[in-house]
Amino acid sequence: MSITDARRRRALHAVAGLIGLLAVTPAAQASGLQVSPVLVTITERSAILKLSNVTTDAMRAQVRVFRWDQVEGTDRLRPTDDVLASPPMIDVGGNGRQIVRLVRRDMTSAQGGPCETAYRLRVDELPAPKMRPSKSGLDFRMSYSIPLFVTAARCRKDQPRLSWRIGGEGASRTLTVANGGSRHAQLAAATIIGRGGQRQPISQGLMGYVLPGSSMHFPVRGNVQIPAEGMIEVMINGQKASWPVRSAASGQ
Fold it and tell me: How many folded domains does the chain comprise?
């Protein structure tokens, strides 16, 4: 693999971690809040999140943690204290940087529990003190939704185990991906390959995540011709892979 390919793969993996980035107000487009990393994994007790302010004005941010599940093909977030953000509210001076420590409280996975538990970090930039809040309350300027995975050390080498199926007709066609493994799958840049080698892209960028034990549905748009049996080429957690895919119409 060339250096260029490696850089492209790392860049794709990093950009994909920014799913959920929202610009809520026009001022957010000029926001100076930057957050890294854009995907967090905890295998021991804690991890670090860095908040940077690239403007000359001071800003305030809030960090919250949500438990992340997928139910019937839909992401579900619930408040949790399994992982604590310390501090949860933080002031960042102009051109400054602050560190938030993510501390794991629930150690069951380290003692024989699930291999991986998924969370989402919600990082909200709050309005500067000199700005008047709206009548509805706080005015968020920028919001990041960052995947956080708590992984047992014994499972670090485990991989997702995926199955692929395309169903529906016309504009309602969907690609259903089921993950029977113990680790999450981040999916991007998917292409259907027919028996004759015909390549039909169905996604150029990030598709989303499929958590362990879950299934997710992704729309198949355009004039993609779905073979009864074929292969799907896709980036999974930053690595290119090929998997068998079949159409529901094949009846197999």
Answer: 2
- Dist. CA 122–CA 62, nearest whole Å: 8
Query: Is 99:74 a contact under the CB 8 Å cutoff?
Result: no
pLDDT per residue as tens digits for the range 187-238: 999 999 887 888 889 898 999 999 999 999 998 877 777 777 789 999 999 9
Q: Identify the burial level of 237 via C-beta atoms within 10 angstroms of its C-beta, where 0-12 means exposed, 13-18 middle and 19 or more buried.
A: middle
Residue 72: give its domain's CATH number. Answer: 2.60.40.10
Cis peptide bond prior to 37, omega within 30° of 0: yes
**Mean pLDDT, residues 66-76 taken together:** 96
Task: Indicate if 167 and 151 belong to the same structural domain.
Answer: no
The owner of tokens 């879950």 is: 214
**3-class DSSP state for residue 9?**
helix
Range of the domain at 13: 3-155
pTM of the model: 0.81
- Residue 224's Cβ-count burial label (10 Å; 0-12, 13-18, 19+) is middle
Of 137, 155, 173, which residue constitutes the final position of a domain? 155
Strands 239-247 and 162-167: parallel
Strand pairing category for 142-151 and 199-201: unpaired
Amino acid at 237: N
The CATH number that applies at residue 167 is 2.60.40
